[in-house]
TrEMBL record:
<feature type="domain" description="Phosphatidic acid phosphatase type 2/haloperoxidase">
    <location>
        <begin position="60"/>
        <end position="173"/>
    </location>
</feature>
<protein>
    <submittedName>
        <fullName>Phosphatase PAP2 family protein</fullName>
    </submittedName>
</protein>
<feature type="transmembrane region" description="Helical">
    <location>
        <begin position="105"/>
        <end position="125"/>
    </location>
</feature>
<dbReference type="InterPro" id="IPR036938">
    <property type="entry name" value="PAP2/HPO_sf"/>
</dbReference>
<dbReference type="InterPro" id="IPR000326">
    <property type="entry name" value="PAP2/HPO"/>
</dbReference>
<dbReference type="Pfam" id="PF01569">
    <property type="entry name" value="PAP2"/>
</dbReference>
<feature type="transmembrane region" description="Helical">
    <location>
        <begin position="26"/>
        <end position="46"/>
    </location>
</feature>
<keyword id="KW-0812">Transmembrane</keyword>
<keyword id="KW-1133">Transmembrane helix</keyword>
<feature type="transmembrane region" description="Helical">
    <location>
        <begin position="58"/>
        <end position="77"/>
    </location>
</feature>
<keyword id="KW-0472">Membrane</keyword>
<feature type="transmembrane region" description="Helical">
    <location>
        <begin position="156"/>
        <end position="173"/>
    </location>
</feature>
<dbReference type="GO" id="GO:0042392">
    <property type="term" value="F:sphingosine-1-phosphate phosphatase activity"/>
</dbReference>
Amino acid sequence: MEDIIQIDKKLLVFLNNLGSEQWDSLWLTITNQLNWIPLFLLIFFLIIKSYGWKRGGFMILAMVVLVGVSDQFTNLVKNTVQRLRPNNDPQIYQLLRNLIDPQSYSFMSGHATTSTFFTIFAILLLKEKYKYPYFLLLFPAFFSYSRLYLGVHFPIDIIVGILIGVIFGNLYFRLYQKLDRVSFN
């Protein structure tokens, strides 16, 4: 396990040091959840357009609950594992380009988990109505990578977050389908 952790740290240092000042403001913008509001509004619009206000509203409510569940689950894991963030890791922090300085724990990435969870659920809701919903996967890809660029998560934090997001997105969709059948059929 120690070998994996060392590889994880070396990979982060490598990826983080690929950054440059000319791109820093872009990645700081990408990592900020509020800057993605237009994408969320587009998704909500497409859901309402496809399913109407009543059923679409139920879907949007399910998405709001999803974000809350994902956030709480991620915080539970972070507080249980208590892995230091790279920017606080005495072994590597001086090797990183640090642009922000969060103090919470690192494992697993809430950005990766929640954005993937949300996106998978949105894709599953929209794939029958729209031709290219998989383009939405660009959101968690860029959002997650921003955390490596900024040096605040290790690659394993991101990979596990994405995997958990995919699993939870699919499971949540199955649960949603059961509730939808009861409510709208």
